[in-house]
């Protein structure tokens, strides 16, 4: 694994300040990346120490604390849940172009909110995921031996590789890799013959095509979401 979330995203993940789509993508990445997992643990420890320091400065009476714990116990006792068995998250299943792929359990909740697949010439397929956030989240399937027209981005594009691999002008990307691009990047992702690719894509703004007839999608400066 050669491509990772930056420290800013990892810190937002550790402190719970990240959006749900990026949170799911990073959770999936760190399951198989010990380097990023260690960095998240460091940020979590720092956040814990900061909270402890803040708590020590606050003045709370013993009655206030007693009331807090009493309310917590009441909430726990009234929950209608069965804790006799641990909750196990199951991987998700994605079907596209006559194929089925297994995706990590961390991504499964997003898969459950997929829309119908849209096909671009039977080569590229996209399915928008309904999340109540400003970014556009989708699954992107690229068949083997396909090149996506060169484009850049008005905002950020985050990509998590779920199956297969692809490459562009900046390198090759494989399962588990997390890639983040912005307006400084112009690239034309492509798959090689014999290798398709399934990715989770998160866009904060539309992408802008920079070459060929695909530039017609840039009309009125709006760009295009996949």
How big a fraction of the residues is strand?
25-35%
Major beta sheet, specifics? Answer: 7 strands, antiparallel
Evaluate the radius of gyration.
Answer: 21 Å
Q: How many strands in all?
A: 11
Domain ChrR-like cupin: 135-200
InterPro entries: Anti-sigma_ChrR (IPR012807), Anti_sigma_zinc_sf (IPR041916), ChrR-like_cupin_dom (IPR025979), RmlC-like_jellyroll (IPR014710), RmlC_Cupin_sf (IPR011051)
Protein name: ChrR family anti-sigma-E factor
Pfam family, one: Cupin_7
Protein architecture, described:
With 226 residues, the protein is α+β, with helices and mostly antiparallel strands. It folds into 2 domains: 7-78, Arc Repressor Mutant, subunit A (Orthogonal Bundle); 92-221, Jelly Rolls (Sandwich), CATH 2.60.120. Helices cover 29% and strands 26% of the residues. The chain is built from 5 helices and 11 strands. It has helices spanning 7-14, 20-31, 34-57, 62-78, 108-111, and strands at residues 92-96, 99-103, 118-120, 124-129, 136-142, 151-153, 157-168, 171-174, 178-181, 197-203, 207-209. Strands 3, 4, 5, 7, 8, 9 and 10 form a 7-stranded antiparallel sheet that branches. The protein has a two-stranded antiparallel sheet with strand order 1-2. It has a two-stranded antiparallel sheet with strand order 6-11. A hairpin with a 6-residue loop joins strand 4 and strand 5 (136-142). Helix 1 packs across helix 3. The longest helix has 24 residues, at 34-57. The protein starts with 6 loop residues before the first helix and ends in a 17-residue tail after the last strand.
């Amino acid at each position: 694994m050669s491509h990772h979330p930056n420290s800013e995203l990892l810190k937002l993940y550790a402190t719970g300040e990240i959006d749900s789509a990026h949170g799911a993508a990073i959770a999936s990445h760190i399951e198989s990346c010990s380097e990023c997992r260690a960095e998240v643990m460091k940020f979590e420890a720092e956040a814990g120490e900061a909270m402890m320091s803040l708590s020590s400065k606050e003045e709370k009476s013993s009655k206030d604390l007693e009331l807090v714990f009493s309310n917590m116990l009441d909430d726990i006792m009234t929950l209608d849940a069965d804790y006799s068995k641990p909750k196990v998250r199951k991987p998700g299943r994605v079907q596209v172009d006559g194929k089925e792929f297994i995706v990590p359990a961390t991504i499964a909740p997003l898969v459950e909110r997929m829309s119908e697949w849209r096909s671009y010439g039977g080569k590229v397929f996209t399915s928008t995921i309904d999340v109540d956030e400003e970014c556009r989240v989708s699954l992107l399937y690229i068949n083997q031996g396909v090149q996506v027209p060169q484009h850049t981005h008005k905002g950020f594009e985050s990509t998590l590789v779920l199956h297969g691999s692809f490459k562009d002008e900046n390198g090759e990307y494989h399962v588990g890799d997390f890639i983040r691009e912005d307006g400084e990047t112009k690239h034309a992702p492509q798959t090689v013959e014999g290798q398709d690719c399934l990715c989770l894509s998160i866009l904060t703004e539309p992408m802008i095509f920079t070459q060929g007839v695909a530039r017609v999608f840039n009309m009125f400066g709006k760009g295009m979401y996949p």
